[in-house]
Description:
Blueprint: H1 13-20, H2 30-44, H3 113-125, H4 128-142, H5 145-157
Helix pairs in contact: 2-3, 2-4, 2-5, 3-4, 4-5
Amino acid sequence: METNTSDSPALPIADTVDAFASWPLVSMTEEEVFETAARHLLTQNEKSRAEFHDCAPPDQQSPACLYRGPRDLKCAAGPFIPDEFYKPEMEGEVWAGNDKSLLSRGLVPDKHANLIRQLQIIHDANRPSQWRSELADLADENGFEEIWEKVRSEIKANR
């Protein structure tokens, strides 16, 4: 059986694929993934990140974004990890894009990996006040304009 060859703990690929069959993510369309993450980010309107625990001066501290953070906060990718599959060791690693990512370690399915990584970057690299414009740009790039307008309108109506 083929296995993941990274230095991180590996799962057999065949077993992983079977496990992912129960993840709602694998049956979602790209549009549904975008809508779920956009609604989540704009409703939460706060980054999911670690508290400062290091000894660096405050201007040099950079708390890590978390899939599962304090007060039940989640990053943009967090809603796609079912609670029963979440592992604390997922923290500190990106969804996809390098050899230590959750995807390369066999901890998440590959379906929509690029889109989820883009959404994760929006959460991690921007302030919440910038998320609307970043999500609008991502919607334009991917043809999700109608979905974006729907989510934006719903969020605006609920405030």
